[in-house]
Design a protein that fits this description.
Layout: H1 15-56, H2 59-64, E1 68-69, E2 78-79, H3 82-113, H4 116-131, H5 134-152, H6 162-186, H7 190-198, H8 203-214, H9 216-232, H10 235-240, E3 251-252, E4 258-259, H11 262-266, H12 273-281, H13 290-317, H14 324-330, H15 342-374, H16 382-404, H17 407-434, H18 443-463, H19 467-492, H20 498-519, H21 522-540, H22 549-571, H23 576-592, H24 605-624, H25 636-654, H26 665-669, H27 682-712, H28 718-736, H29 739-753, H30 761-785, H31 789-797, H32 802-830, H33 834-838, H34 859-867, H35 872-907
Antiparallel strand pairs: 1-2, 3-4
Helix pairs in contact: 1-13, 1-27, 1-28, 1-29, 3-6, 3-9, 3-15, 4-6, 4-15, 4-35, 5-6, 6-9, 7-8, 8-14, 9-13, 12-13, 15-35, 16-18, 16-25, 17-18, 19-24, 20-21, 20-22, 22-23, 22-24, 23-24, 27-30, 27-32, 27-34, 28-30, 29-30, 30-32, 31-32, 32-35, 34-35
């Protein structure tokens, strides 16, 4: 641990500094101790109701019973979990047949065969694959996979079935197997590979005969964790498998040996342990009833299974570093290696490459369909597609090719686009003419998604590395990102009082910042801030006259952003005119935002949006204009907007048939409805924004605090070393606990125990914050651990204390990595559904919340509710639009995390 280098005791350290050291150390310890509290709370919450349940239901009847019927009204109660175990094993085993071999081959390819360029593409794509919400996978299984299987292979398949759910669970767990297995393979010393090559082994022999055996314990560990993940999966099986607890029929062969036909369990509906929990939670939750207590008994059972799997994985992983000698023995002589032909080695390489892309390929097909449905592209005329292709896509490709400035790349792009046109159109027409029609797709749409989109994405990636492209994409990113962030900030004031914020900012934050600038004392500034905020609470009930909301936004958002933007320009050494210009431009933009008022956001929201969009753009332009090669790239936003406007004019002028899109501005700003064409996602979007902001604040503080304590305030030996080891084991165990169990924690502790209410934002935020806390802690630890120890020693040599070193050296250096991990963790939180169901969150609300105690919904919850509607307009239109909206948010968050990580790696 980096913390083994303890800061020397400074004889001249004042009493105040010693108090700071003790105080911050205690705070960080409390943050870390919350992980222990979480474990204790989970166990206590589950046990409290499970004990009551087992006092009335015998454990033997629970574990060996073959009938599950938890009637909430108390009639015909039966709590035998054998049908649930059969359903769980069916999904887990089938998913394992997909995830384990595909994930292992993917790991071999990434570790042994992939070049840096291939890795740079496949790794982020696999991360995106892992980050897609499980409710989306469930929707894919129900709406696309099941109909395709029924139409081709299994005409007797039930609408709700275990096979489709298992396929999606398998694809979901591929990244877990590949990531952990690749880490194990990458940790194998390179000397073992070189020794194998020195004895005449081929890459195939080295990969399968040396690297894989040496990393075997790590690979097996990934298998166990993936199986544990499949056992605890909830939303995929809830949406796609159904909720019918049943024992499969037992058949007899000619020899009289009983057996169960795989088709009887795979092609029909069933129920897993997690589905049973959600089914009970989805009914009328009444504490003190047997069905209610049964949820906690199931949760305890699931927790025990998960922990056993996790402990088993840890035991196997202990052999990780001890397994290298096996590989050494295997290469003791050249005769140990089988004579492998080049053809066999090449086939194996292609096999690993195919395994690496199989999950991505399946996901790509599903995403094509969901985007086609969300934008109703199947209803668009070919002329509409051609118009926007010429006005938007072609100019964008031209911009990318100009930025790259390579004849070879231009020639390859033309060949790809032209050859792909023929390669898609001809087979598509042949298939549709002589074999079967392809639903909701045309060759034009297929060409756009299969050829144009990947080609454009590749060119955009290449162009972003060049001056012009880097300037253009950077400007577009700041415009879009700033506007989105401004809208998110404005959304907060739907549930928080803007007048209280105005007083707290004026009497607390401004004086505290001013004091810090002049006095440079953190302690004094914090005291002034606390006093001012407390005073603002008193004044809120006294003062009756306030500025308008727009002026409040200008004062509390526009002005500070202007100051920060001008300060950044000044720090970068720009001219005085540039500093003043950026500050004035931001203030003017904030003022002009008064004229822009989104109808669904609080009054004055336009100020926050324009200010947060202008400040980063203004700072960016001061740098971009100094780069002559990148100035032309700044025209990219004009090119995009101009192309969209020109395309709209052409479509309107010539009366070209346009698609009746589901994902429109009205969809984003309207409330849900039983009428598909009037249904909107707005209340759920607001709920997700509010919850994720609260989760970000809670998880960031606790996660970073715990990571700092473990890395900077503990050692590898003694009492602190023992505490650190206990905390690390506990955090690893918490990371493996299924999300549905966290939902029971939120229900028992926050909603009922603390009386925070069912389905409120506070309950949801606390539950999700604890859910992602282990991920935040682990990622923050990695970031803190990556800070070179020389920086710490240099700080200590200058007389700094441990807290000063942490604050001024460690955290600034580690912040990019901390932010990356936090964003990825928040991406998981925003897509979680099962915990929200367990805490009683509303599936549908018709008005945006007006306080943190209001009934909340979230985007995954609304998608889950709509997915159960039988009307095709909802399944193939409204839900598809919701899925695309959620995916855009998640991909944006994951993309931001990847960009931060890549920049960090380049700077390192």
């Amino acid at each position: 641990m980096s913390s083994e280098n303890i800061a020397p005791e400074l004889q001249r350290s004042s009493g105040v500094e010693r108090l700071k050291e003790t105080g911050f150390g205690s705070i960080f310890f409390i943050c870390a101790a919350i992980t222990i509290f979480t474990t204790v709370a989970i166990v206590a919450t589950l046990l409290s109701d499970a004990i009551v349940f087992f006092s009335e239901i015998q454990i033997v009847d629970f574990l060996l019973g073959t009938n599950w019927s938890p009637n909430p009204r108390g009639e015909g109660l039966a709590f035998g979990i054998i049908p649930l175990v059969i359903g769980t094993l069916t999904v887990t085993i089938t998913a394992a047949f997909i995830a384990l071999p595909v994930g292992t081959l993917t790991a071999i390819y990434l570790s042994e065969y992939a070049n840096p360029q291939a890795r740079s593409v496949l790794k982020p794509l696999l991360e995106i694959l892992a980050g897609i919400p499980t409710v989306v996978y469930g929707y894919f299984a129900l709406v696309y996979v099941t109909p395709a299987l029924k139409a081709t292979l299994f005409p007797n398949m039930s609408t709700f079935n275990a096979l489709s759910a298992s396929l999606m669970v398998g694809i979901l767990t591929i990244p877990m197997v590949s990531s952990i297995s690749e880490d194990a393979m990458s940790a194998v010393p390179d000397s073992l590979r070189q020794a194998g090559y020195g004895l005449g082994a081929t890459k195939f022999e080295v990969s399968t005969g040396i690297v894989t055996p040496a990393a075997l314990s790590g690979i097996v560990s990934s298998y166990i964790l993936a199986i544990s993940r499949a056992i605890g999966e909830t939303m995929i099986v809830v949406v796609a498998m159904g909720s019918q607890a049943r024992m499969p029929p037992v058949r007899e062969t000619i020899a009289g040996i009983p057996y169960v036909a795989p088709s009887d369990v795979l092609l029909d509906s069933g129920m897993t342990i997690t589905v049973a929990m959600v089914q009970i939670a989805g009914g009328d939750l009444v504490g003190g009833t047997l069905p209610y207590d049964a949820m906690f008994a199931l949760g305890l059972t699931l927790l025990v299974i998960t922990l056993i799997m996790n402990v088993l994985s840890d035991i196997i992983a202990q052999r990780y570093r001890e397994a290298y000698w096996m590989a050494v023995e295997r290469q003791s002589s050249a005769s140990d290696f089988e004579s492998i032909s080049r053809l066999k080695g090449a086939l194996f390489e292609y096999l690993t490459l195919g395994a690496s892309v199989i999950g991505l390929f399946a996901l790509a097909i599903l995403l094509i369909y969901v985007f086609v449905d969300a934008f109703a592209l199947s209803t668009a005329g070919p002329e509409w597609l051609l118009t926007y292709f010429l006005t938007l896509v072609v100019p964008f490709i031209g911009f990318c090719l100009y930025s790259i400035d390579s004849r070879r790349v231009t020639r390859q792009a033309i060949i790809a686009l032209g050859g792909g046109l023929v390669g898609i159109a001809v087979p598509f027409v042949i298939i549709e003419t002589y074999i079967a029609s392809i639903p909701r797709l045309t060759w034009q749409i297929t060409y756009l998604f299969v050829i144009v989109a990947p080609t454009t994405g590749t060119l955009a990636t290449m162009a972003s590395r060049e001056p012009a492209g880097k300037a253009g994409f950077g400007l577009v990113g700041r415009i879009v990102g700033g506007a989105a962030l401004g809208a998110a900030v404005a959304t907060i004031f739907l549930v928080f009082d803007d007048l209280s914020w105005f007083l707290a900012y004026t009497t607390g934050i401004v004086p505290a910042v001013g004091t810090y600038i002049y006095v440079r004392s953190t302690g004094v500034s914090v005291i002034i801030a606390i006093v001012g905020i407390v005073l603002s609470g008193v004044l809120r009930n006294i003062i009756s006259v306030y500025p308008s909301s727009a002026i409040i936004f200008v004062w509390t958002v526009g002005v500070p952003l202007a100051v920060v933007a001008a300060g950044l320009v000044h720090i970068r050494g720009r001219s005085q005119q540039a500093v003043v210009g950026v500050g004035i431009a931001t203030v003017i933009a904030a003022g002009s935002g008064v004229l822009f008022q989104p109808s669904v956001l609080p009054t004055g929201s336009g100020v926050a949006i324009t200010a947060m969009m202008t400040a980063p753009v203004a700072v960016y332009l001061t740098d971009a204009f100094d780069n002559e090669g990148g100035r032309l790239g700044l025209t990219l936003p004009v090119l995009i907007v101009g192309g969209a406007v020109l395309g709209a004019l052409i479509v309107q002028s010539f009366g070209i048939q346009s698609p009746e899109m589901w994902l429109t501005l009205e969809y984003i700003t309207e409330a849900p409805s039983r009428n598909a064409r009037e249904a909107g996602l707005y209340p759920a979007i607001v709920g997700s924004v509010i919850i994720i902001i609260l989760v970000a604040i809670i998880s960031f503080i606790l996660g970073v605090g715990a990571a700092v304590f473990l890395e900077e305030y503990t050692s590898s030996s003694g009492l602190t070393g023992s505490i650190a080891r206990i905390l690390q084991i506990n955090i690893a165990n918490l990371a493996a606990v299924p999300s549905v169990v966290y939902g029971l924690l939120g229900l028992g502790l926050f909603a009922n125990g603390l009386g925070l209410g069912l389905g409120t934002a506070v309950t949801a935020a606390l539950t999700l914050a604890l859910l992602i806390l282990p991920i935040t802690v682990i990622s923050s630890q990695e970031a803190v651990r990556s800070v070179p120890d020389e920086l710490r020693q240099g700080s200590y040599a200058m007389g700094a204390t441990r807290w000063q070193t942490t604050k001024n050296v460690v955290l600034p250096e580690a912040m990019p990595g901390i932010l990356t991990g936090t964003i990825l963790a928040l991406g998981r939180a925003i897509g979680e559904t099962a915990p929200l169901i367990m805490i009683g969150a509303a599936t549908t609300v018709f008005n945006a919340p007006n306080s943190v105690w209001s009934a909340f919904s979230a985007m995954p919850m609304q998608i889950y509710a709509w997915a159960g509607f039988p009307q095709s307009e909802f399944r193939y239109g409204v839900v598809a639009a919701g899925v695309v909206t959620l995916l855009i948010v998640l991909i944006s968050m994951n993309g931001a995390a990847i960009i931060i990580r890549n920049r960090l790696e380049r700077s390192t």
